[in-house]
Structures are given as C-alpha cells and as structure tokens.
Specification:
The structure holds two protein chains of two kinds. Chain A is mainly alpha-helical. In chain A, about 50% of the residues lie in helices and about 10% in strands. In chain B, helix 2 packs antiparallel against helix 3. Classes of the chains: A mainly alpha, B alpha+beta. The interface between A and B is large, with 43 and 43 residues.
Chain lengths: ~170, ~350
C-alpha cells in the first residue's frame, strides 16, 4: 500500500514466460488491482494460467500503453461506419490490426481481457469483431467464427420461430 | 489454442453477448442464422441489454422511462411475457424522416428560418421570402415516409377463406410514434402518416377558437388574407423540384390551404375540401391497403383525396413529406416524435387482424 503504483508486477503465462509491468499500468485490470501483494517486497509475481505467452505479451503491451495514452470510450451508437472511423487513435488501430492479430489471437484476447477484467481491451476487441461480422452473411460468419453447421431439423425450427432472420434484404 | 472449435463459444455468455454489442439488427439476424447456440443466446433473456441498445439506436427518441406498445402483439418465440423486440426491430426501416433538408439551398439563402421550441423540441419553420409571386418554394423531409413492401409470394399460411385472387399483400413496417400517454407505439402497420401544424397568429389558440365562433366580422376579415397566402401539404417523390413548385405540381400530391383544393400531377385540380389556415393541424397519410392518400384536419379524418393509386407506383416510390410555403405563417412537422392529433392507432386497427395473421406461429 505504501508504494502504490511504484511496485513491479511479474505475470507468468500458462507456458511459463514472464512479463513485467509497473503497478500503475496494472491498475486497469480489475483482477490485478485486487490481487494480494507480497509484503515488504517490491516485486509481485502472479500466475496467469489461463493465458498463453503470445496473448499475454500483447495484453501487457496494451496495459503499458494504456498507462501512457488512455483509450477513448467507444460511443454507442457507433460514430462511424468503418473501424478506423470509430477508433481514431492510431496506436489502438494498429494494436488490433497487425499481422499477429489473427482470428485466434483476437478471440484469445477477448477471453483474456474478460478474465483479467480489462474493460477498454474488451471493448476494443469487440469493436474489431463487430467490423469483421458486419456486412457478412450467415455462411461467412459461420466460417469466421468456425461454428458448426445447422442440422436440417435445427434450421427448420429456426425458420418457424424466427422467420425474419431468414428473409433476404 | 489448436482446437478446431470456435474460440467464441468457449467464452462466458456475457462476453459472447458483449461481442455483439456494436452490431446492428441485420447483422445480429445473420449471427442468429449461423448456429443453434448463438441463436438461442441472442434471443435469450440474457440478451435483454443487447436488445435495449438496439431499440435505442433504431427507434430513437427512447429514454429510460419509455415504454413500447405493440397492439398486434406479434408472437414471441423465446423471451416470454415480453414483446418480440427482435422481430419488430427487423421491420423498422434504417432511416425514418426526422427533419427537413436543405434541398435546393433554401435554408442558406435565408428564405427559410427555423427556430426550436425549447420545451417540446418542435422545430418551427418560417418562410421569409416574397409571398404571392410566381416563384414558390417547398421544403422536403430528409427521409421518405416508411412504406410496406409488396410481397409477391403469398403469406406463409394460406388464407382458408375464399379470397379474391391477386389480393395485394403488403408486408408491414414498424415506425415508432408517440401516443398521447407518452408510450411509444411500435405496432406493425401498413399506413404511413405525418402531421403539419400551422402556428396560430398572435392570439392564443383557445382564444382564437372563441373569437372565430363569436365574431363573424373577424372571420370575414381573415378570409381574403387566407386566399392570398397558401400552404400546401402533401407527398412527393425524391426528384420533386422544391424550388419552384408546391406539392400537387408535377408527379406529387398536395392539399392547398387557400382554396382547400387537392392537386396532383401538373396541378390539375381534382376537387375541393375544407380550407385551412393558422391554428390548424393537417395530417397526411398513405393507406397502402386501399392504395389511397388521405388527409386529416384537427384530428378528424377528412377522407381520401386519391384512391386506388397504381400498386406498382406505390410499391416502388419513396414518398417524401413535402410542405409548400407561400405564407408568412410558421409551420412545424410532426413525424411521430410528438403525439399525433389524429388517432392513427385507432385508424390502423381495421387492418390489425390481417397483419397479425401473418405472424401467427
């Protein structure tokens, strides 16, 4: 408590890699903020067994940057029709758009953001998912999200209950 | 991470739903088509907040205390005891008329003056150019009135009654309008409607009524003045030239205040009905069931001005609320953000049976 924001937190991923960040950067995470600190010790180690290193690395990168430049809140309804129109901060645009950020990474990130309780990261990844889904038809979304196909019975039931979702625009 | 299953499905329910927070109704519909789990999820009670946000963004003018009514009560599939918000939202057009546009630059040439009433939020519009001259002006709304779609297919469940063949089959739309009790009516309908109020001059409205009954002299005095001015209320297709015509000219429909004339197509006058002027509220609607355009005056239905308009025309043409102003009186247009004077809900009731039949499970 005495050294609020000055301590160091070490996060250990599920595959054993360690990432370091300041206590002040970790504040954005509900989970880290509330986790117990080692007494009389400037360094606290926390195991994040649910998150693997490639993802944790990105998450830590996000937290460090957020500590320097806060992400603006995303307005609803969205203030634009493309991802970059809605999210106008270049660093955050790039963060979810670089080559490392493939489909799996995006959903792992979503999961990690939820687990660690990082609301801005959750919003950012959701926004990215939104623009991946918007304008796609059911087939394409199924492919994107790797969902199982509907059985004919399920499809018939769905058509009966929610006929509007099957109407073509 | 190397598993073939969807990463999304492994997330907790609230996170999955959060991922859809920013989607629009149509995309949620597509998501619901993909698989059983996601469909159940987006139509479950857990998705309440998701749909509430959708109501806010598509139905607009919604605040925390708003409550919606659907008089037809379209059936619910999953959420019990509540109205079928997803279905109703899917029937709502992307854009509804909400204001007049600056078509032909009338607003920037200072000929049209607008002012907003702080209390009600009503926008008053006043024409400040020369009156009674050859050049006349009209103002058009930003979006057309919502319209139902003509279905070529017969409804899912065929009518058992021996009905006329080729009976028109209009797929209703939802366009929210405020009721007098402040609830917001989102009942599917096949009748579009808007109202125009002409602000009473100087004297208070209540007083004006009394004066007009009591004093014949004043009535006579005001008549010649009304004949000089003209306000024309009606509907026009998108390409209507607002700068130089009142509704009724070209291929538009208009009801003129000065002589109560109903005009359509190149101004050929069809017939007369009541004159109107300051203090009056005139409503104009399209009843797609009869293919007719009707007018109302101070909450009373005046009747159909045109009937049996060509179905193909109605099915394909966006009709914009248009008001021609050749008068100093200020007007305001109500698209349903304020309660209508006319009982639109009561008028639509005659079609509710046919509409609810479409949605019977």
């Amino acid at each position: 408590m005495a050294d609020e924001g000055n301590g160091i937190i070490r996060l250990r991923s599920s595959d054993g890699k360690v990432f370091e960040l300041t206590e002040s950067a970790a504040e954005i995470s509900e989970l880290l903020k509330d986790s117990p600190r080692e007494e009389d010790d400037e360094v606290t180690e926390i195991d994040i067994v649910r998150v693997a290193s490639p993802c944790l690395e990105k998450v830590v990168e996000f937290m460090k940057h957020y500590d320097e430049e806060k992400m603006k809140e995303i307005p609803t309804p969205l203030g634009g029709s493309t991802f970059n129109e809605v999210m106008d901060q270049p660093w955050y645009q790039d963060f979810v758009s670089d080559e490392k950020m493939n489909r799996d990474m995006l959903f792992n990130m979503l999961s990690a953001a939820n687990f660690l309780g990082i609301k801005p990261l959750l919003d950012l990844t959701c926004l990215k998912v939104t623009f991946q889904i918007t304008g796609k038809n059911a087939e394409e979304i199924r492919e994107l999200l790797r969902l199982p196909e509907l059985t004919p019975e399920e499809e018939a039931k769905a058509r009966e209950e929610h006929s509007w979702i099957f109407e073509e625009a | 991470m190397t598993k073939a299953s969807s990463a999304l499905e492994e997330l907790p329910i609230d996170v999955q739903l959060h991922a859809f927070d920013f989607l629009d109704v149509d995309s949620i519909g597509q998501v619901a088509r993909t698989c059983h789990c996601l469909r159940n999820l987006v139509f479950s009670n857990d998705a309440h907040e998701l749909w509430l946000n959708q109501c806010r963004s598509r139905w607009g003018h919604v605040d925390r205390d708003s409550y919606f009514i659907d008089k037809i009560d379209v059936p619910k599939a999953l959420a019990k005891g509540e109205m079928n918000v997803p279905l109703l939202l899917s029937m709502t057009p992307q854009a509804l008329p909400s204001k007049v546009v600056d078509k032909d630059n009338l607003l920037t040439t200072d000929k049209i003056e607008t002012s907003q009433d702080q209390e009600s939020g009503t926008v008053n519009i006043r024409y400040t150019g020369p009156i009674g001259e050859d050049q006349v002006h009209s103002i058009r709304s930003d979006q057309p009135l919502p319209r139902p779609q003509l279905c070529t297919k017969s409804p899912r469940r065929k009518l058992r009654l021996p009905s006329r063949k080729n009976k028109q089959n209009w797929k209703p739309f939802v366009a929210p309008f405020k009721e007098k009790d402040d609830s917001i009516n989102v009942t599917p309908r096949t009748v579009s409607y808007f109202e125009v109020s002409i602000k009473a001059q100087e004297v208070e409205e209540q007083e004006r009524e009394r004066v007009s009954f009591q004093s014949l002299l004043e009535e006579q005095e005001s008549t010649p003045e009304e004949q000089k001015d003209c306000i024309a209320i009606g509907l026009a297709p998108q390409d209507f030239d607002c700068n130089g015509a009142l509704p009724g000219h070209d291929f538009s429909f208009g009801y003129h205040s000065d002589n109560g004339g109903l005009y359509h197509n190149a101004g050929s006058r069809k017939k007369h009905t009541h004159q109107y002027g300051p203090g009056d509220t005139i409503g104009c609607g399209v009843d797609y069931n009869t293919g007719g355009i009707f007018f109302t005056k101070n909450s009373k239905l005046l009747g159909f001005a045109w009937k049996k308009i060509d179905t193909n025309f109605l099915a394909k043409t966006d009709l914009y609320p248009v008001v021609g102003i050749d008068s100093e009186d200020s007007i305001s247009i109500n698209y349903g953000h304020q309660p209508f004077q006319f009982d639109l809900s009561g008028y639509c009731e005659q079609y509710s049976k046919a509409i609810s039949k479409r949605y019977r499970l």
